[in-house]
Every structure is written in structure tokens, then in C-alpha cells.
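Problem: given the chain below (229 residues), write out its structure.
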Amino acid sequence: MGPGIVRGNAGYGRRVALGPALALPLFGFGVFRPARAQAPVRLLALGDSLTAGYGLPQDQGFVPRLQAALGARGRQVRVINAGVSGDTIAGGLARLDWALAENPQAALVALGGNDGLRALPPAQSRAALTGILDRLAARRIPTLLAGMLAPPNFGAAYGQEFAAMFQDLARARPDLVFYPFFLEGVAADPALNQPDGIHPNAKGVEEVVRRILPSVEALLERVPRAPAG
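Solution.
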């Protein structure tokens, strides 16, 4: 919250005493109102364990580090952690209404990792992701879609169909901000991952945030700003 509004009842042409023998008319002058602080943008991060910060101290997960990075760039943003470990895209769709109760002004959708790990049919995942994007669009919530890749052990054909799910939806929806791979530059790097080889460590999270930050800022530019109440 910024400084309070200076209130008064200076009628049109009212004279205000400024000293024992000095008075000035207020014709042409409005009551001074200091600029109010902007309310933080509410950014929903809908995801799984990668968003929730699995295996990391609370302040080192993706959501707090993204919020801190945005703050360091002068952006007032409250990132809402709607990450649930183990969740699939269908799970994200099932709880989307609950997440939207926070009235977000923008959304980052980062789901799909568990769909790939379980080799779920891409058509099934695509239908759920379409449902998420449709619901966000109906609420006119600017959205960033972060893509995911399937593990290579399920074969090239499955991997291509899985990746195409995100690419096709992004092409069909030019209103989306699209970031092709959430773990770009981090996946499969032992120095940036926890011992399970799946979840980023603190250093890996910082790299994820650094790489996705320009896309998040592009998303925030689409959010109409309103002053704090």
C-alpha cells in the first residue's frame, strides 16, 4: 500500500488561508493526490512437483525464486504456488477451479512431467491440457504454457507425439506465451539436479528461473494493471 490519498473539500474557487495576510484562489488547481502504489500482480503457477519445490527448503523452490527474481527486476508480483507433487495434466484440470479461487491475473501452466514419466497416452493428456487452456481463456487470464519432454526410454515415436502436444496447442493459440521446455538447460545435468535425477536442486531451480524469466515478463506485460485499493 502506498501513501494515503490527501482528502479535502476544497470547493471550486474556495480560498485557503496560507498565512496571516496571504490567501490564494484554487482556480485551475485540483486537490493533490499522491500516486498510489500498484497492487502486486497475482500470478498462478499451476504445476506438479517441479512447481511445488519438491525436495527443497521452502524458500528455494521455483515459486519463491521466481517471485524474488521478478522483484529484483522491479516487478511487484505474488506468485501463487498451485503445484502438487505427482500431479498429471488431468489432475491439474480437476483442481483448476480451486486454484482460480485466488483470482489470478495471469497463469503459468507447467504440467506434463508425470504424464511423460507414466507414458500416459498423449491424446488423453492433450484433451486435459486443452481443458485447462480453454478455462483460462474463458476467464480472460493471460497464460504462459511451459512445455515438457518425455523420457527417452519410451521411444522416439512416443517422445515426438508427446512434445507435439504442447507445440500444436501453442500454434493453435497465438494468444499464449509459449516456453517449449520447462527444464531447458537443467534436465539430465547431474550438477543441477537432486540425486533422483528428475527434480532440480537449488542451483538447478535458479537456472530454470533465469531461462524462463523473459517469457514470464512477456506474460506480465499482457496483464492490465490496477492501483492498489
